[in-house]
Amino acid sequence: MSKAKSLILTGFFIALGIVLPMAFHGIPYGGQIFSPMHIPVLLSGLVLGPVFGLICGVLTPFLSSTLTGMPPATFLPAMTVELGAFGLVGGLLMRYLPIRHYVPATYLSLIGAMLTGRIVAGIANALIFQLGNYSLQIWVTSHFVRSLPGIVLHIVVVPLVYFALRRAGLVHTSI
Q: At what angle do helices 102-124 and 148-167 cross, to 10 degrees?
């Protein structure tokens, strides 16, 4: 895929990452529960690779916070590293996993990115942003228990969209 096309798609995924959460914020705690901003960032890593996935993951929460106030500034640093890891790791795994069939590669890349991003966000919260006030229980509750509906949504929706893009010939990978 050309760099120009990758840049355009990165912009599209960033825009989607700003607009999509607005639909969920009509539901009480919808943004926290369903994590709709994660969907386009995860897709960008799978579709565009690690570099553009990282760019999308870092810029999306920053631009969304600047333009819409969501996420709030207190959550922005942890979300930035989490989503950056989503895009980077999803792209790396999709490109370099030694799996030759795209279905298992997609699911393993997605789950690997989701776990890595949550671990990175937990470490960032514990070491940098909430020094001394962050526990394993808070991390598990906020990144797994409360967001379980979002995790399920991501595991269902992201691969379906990726597979549809692939069938439409819009994703060109070596797998």
A: 140
